[in-house]
Amino acid sequence: VQYLLYEQGRFDDMASELAATVPGLVVVPVEILDPAAAPEAFDAVSGFSVLERPVRVDPESDASLGFSGGTTGTPKGIVRSHRTMVTNALYTVIDWEWPAENRVLVTTPMSHASGAMALPTLLQGGSMVMLDKFSPQAFVDAVAEHRITSTFLVPTMIYRILDLPQAQLDRLSSLETVVYGASLMDPSRMQEALTRIGPVFLQLYGQSEAPNLISVLRKEDHDPSVPGRLASAGRATSCADVTIRDDDDREVPLGEVGEVCVTGPIVMTGYWQNPELT
């Protein structure tokens, strides 16, 4: 049996379209996971326990299919194996600096970076609070209300938060780790963030083909006194072999411009049904 769980009210039309094309698909709107409202769907989902159904999985078999446009503009299906997903979870715990009591505020789509943070959070016994729609004030209010200790933001979100009065930023005192990435960060705005919010920032560099773990600029490395440091993407992670190569696939000398190339268990299996592009 195949199940589709979706957010009722937001994706109803898409769910109906999928149900019409996939025979036997059990569609479960998450808003009505209530025994009285949908007893058949509720019984089907609530009766499942992974502990009662141990399944041996081939580490190289497909586990995840995500989509990203990357540099081509046209979305590509990115196939990730069980080995890649488990590696991602374990090394996210190892290479990032998580609070001892991890309460994560989710501000960005779970289909990308935030989704890859879910398993590492749960493996540490942490919890996640979902912010339905981002605004600077909603972010501050949620952090203060739930005593959030970590979150993930893209640079434009940080800029908008910094536009708030200092009295609002002072309400973010529970934050211990703010992971950011997905686009370039203006070093001057990061220096402002370090001054007004605190030394809690950790930068990730990754892509959907090697999720979240190509390199990391740790909190202690956010040192404004080192020229160019706040413009750095940090050091390669423990699970990524990173080199800079020229058009002939030769590693370039230190300081030369080239293409970032990554190998290791964090890298995708390939693009879905597109071996040439892979």
Task: Please render the helix and strand layout as text.
Elements: E1 3-6, H1 12-21, E2 26-29, H2 39-46, E3 62-68, E4 76-81, H3 82-95, E5 103-106, H4 113-116, H5 118-123, E6 127-130, H6 136-146, E7 150-153, H7 155-162, H8 166-169, E8 177-180, H9 187-196, E9 201-207, E10 210-217, E11 235-236, E12 241-245, E13 259-263, E14 270-271
Parallel strand pairs: 1-2, 5-6, 5-7, 7-8, 8-9
Antiparallel strand pairs: 3-4, 4-14, 9-10, 10-11, 12-13
State mean pLDDT (0 to 100 scale). Answer: 90
Instruction: Encode the helix/strand succession as letters.
Output: EHEHEEHEHHEHEHHEHEEEEEE
> Could you tell me the radius of gyration in angstroms?
21 Å
Measured between the Cα atoms of the first and last residue, the distance is 31 Å
Oligomer: single chain
Structural class: alpha/beta
pLDDT < 50 runs, ≥5 residues: none
Describe the biggest sheet?
7 strands, mixed
Helical content (DSSP H or I, runs of 4+): 25-40%
Identify the strand order in the major beta sheet: 6-5-7-8-9-10-11
> So what's the overall shape?
globular
